[in-house]
Amino acid sequence: MGLFHTFRLSVLLLAMVSVVEAQQEPVQTSKWKSWETDSESQFTGRYANCDYGFYVLLPKGFLAHGNHSPSPNHGFLIGLPDTGITDVVSIDDKRFIWVNAEYNSFDLSSLNGAAEWRTKISGEGKKEFKVLRRENTKLNGLAAKLIRYQYEGSAGTVIEEEVIALRAGILYEIGLRTSAGDYKQDDDQFLKVIGNFRWWRIHYC
To answer: What CATH number should be reported for the domain whose range is 2-199?
Structure first.
């Protein structure tokens, strides 16, 4: 799914981030399932990415949509408002949640710098783009930035919200795109994904 590259989440991180990490291997369970359709990979129960060192426990009723092998595996999308939709979910949709991790080729040296760069990229070509909120937060105990902004789309006001973290040369991002009218209910689903994000050992596999 080249769809993740559209977000251009390649930001050069700090050489290392000192943090006490929860890096235990997730306990296996028969409730975790993954399979491939003709166009994508799908996951229930848990999405795990040992290349980038994280996993997400998917709440009941959530179906994650990821790249079809052998495409690179960077993360996944969750459709909205139906979090369990089995049809293909893409960044062309008006409402969705995304989780993505990438090594970076940009010469940025701090979390603040990454957040500023990401805000700039997000605003390019957008009508009436403005930042509504920017603050420090945590992602599973690691320092992170939360950014919320809005702009005018073809169907009305769009709100996007992102949590960004840096760890060992990797940029992690959890994001939400929705309409202004649907923000409250979609943000509740977004917060579930953030709360179920867990660090794992990088390249554990």
So the answer is: 3.40.1000.10
| Mean pLDDT along residues 11-18 | 28
Q: Which two tokens stand for residue 156?
A: 């009305």
Residue 7 sits at φ, ψ, to 5 deg, of -75, -15
Question: How confident is the prediction for the chain on average, in pLDDT?
Answer: 85
0.90 exceeded by the pTM?
no
Phi then psi dihedrals of residue 44, to 5 deg:
-130, 150
Q: Give the pLDDT of residue 105.
A: 66
Q: Is the peptide bond before 59 cis (omega within 30 degrees of 0)?
A: no
Distance of alpha carbon 66 from alpha carbon 104, whole angstroms: 20
Judged by average pLDDT, the poorest of 10-19, 120-129, 178-187 is 10-19
Cα torsion through 26, 27, 32, 37, rounded to 10: 50
- Long-range CB contact pairs, 64-68, < 8 A, 24+: 65/1, 65/40, 65/41, 65/89, 66/1, 66/40, 66/41, 66/42, 67/1, 67/4, 67/40, 67/41, 68/1, 68/36, 68/37, 68/38, 68/39, 68/40, 68/41
